[in-house]
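Problem statement: downstream parser choked on a complex file, so we are re-checking the raw output for the iron/sulfur cluster run. The parser issue turned out to be on our end (a line-ending mismatch), but while we're here, posting the original submission so the record is complete.
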Amino acid sequence: MRIGGFQKCSLIDYPGKLSAIIFTLGCNFKCSYCHNPELVNPELFPEPIPEGDILAFLARRKGKLDALVITGGEPTLQKDLVEFALKVKELGFLVKLDTNGSNSCILEKLIGIVDYVAMDIKAPLEKYHRVSNSNIDTGEIKKSIELIMNSDRDYEFRTTVVKSELEESDILKIGELIQGARLFVLQKYAVPEKNVRELPAYSDDKFREFQSIIAGFVQKCIIR
Ligand code: SF4
């Protein structure tokens, strides 16, 4: 595992649980609104944190922490992610995976191991290349959505809604893409503290409109 960041405690990243978070190095997308360029651009990668340090920390926190969140970057690019997730489970922790859904083969192996999956829906399929600035095979996105929805895991789909990337009609198409999902999260673009350019945001009223659009497609839609 190539781990570029570690947060010892979070109350918000795993719903209802106290979690630690690791941030893996590398991503196959280049979203314009990415908050973690140091995890995406190899030239900015920090010194990796040894996996053993994370496992030792968790072993010391048994009974105090509930879960480990594995985020990135894109965690499914890590060749030993399945083995790592199993080690964390063996220590007695819940595992949440954050993914961009671009690697359905790894997700298929992980879906029976992890307890919670949060998958980004970047855009309607026809806009994926532009919004993710990648040549992603959108068939992978569809497969990942199906894998998650057909699993018995806790999950959420989530979209960061940035005005320059998504229009109202795109929200409707995203709803169609994840029709029947248990939970969808509309994420506001948080203005970054540094290093990343500020982007125009939709108003709170507009977000509520988007929420009512998506509510027609999914069981529950929240704004975060
Ligand atoms: S998928 Fe996530 S980590 Fe990768 S570039 Fe997009 S926002 Fe950044």
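For whoever reads this later: The mean pLDDT is 95.
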